[in-house]
User: Fold ITA10 protein from Promerops cafer.
Amino acid sequence: PPQVSFTLELEFSCSVLLDRAEVTLQATSDSTEATPQDNVVKLSVPIRYEPNLFLSSNTNLHRYEVHPLGTFTRSSGPEFTTTVKVQNLGCYPIQNVTLHMALPALGHRQATILSVTRVLAENATCVLQPPDEGPQVVPVPPEDLLHTDR
Assistant:
């Protein structure tokens, strides 16, 4: 029997969110057919909307002085304030968004170079995991700049 293939391309409005798209297809003919009941098919497919997330970050300190090896003190250095923002630029709501951040916390000889003092969150729930509970922190390799002119 002859067959016809075609593609349907549907556009959806931002003002109406649908869970499913339902399409009814019906083939008709001028000829007399013995089984006309199989000329109609109803299709129902779930709709998944593509998110449009935008991730940005900003910090108040863009440089930090590193002292020679062995001369660092145990006192805390300047405070970094880093702001991370996740925005939904699309017109569809998004649920269950999870953001994982790994912070470089150890330097030469396992020296702590960064510690989180406080976390302020808006419209989010933040969970802070110490290095022993989260993924293994890879120490930053030391750089020997003593023999470098520039």
Notes: The two ends are 79 Å apart (CA to CA). The CA atoms of residues 79 and 117 lie 9 Å apart. DSSP finds no helices and four strands in the chain.
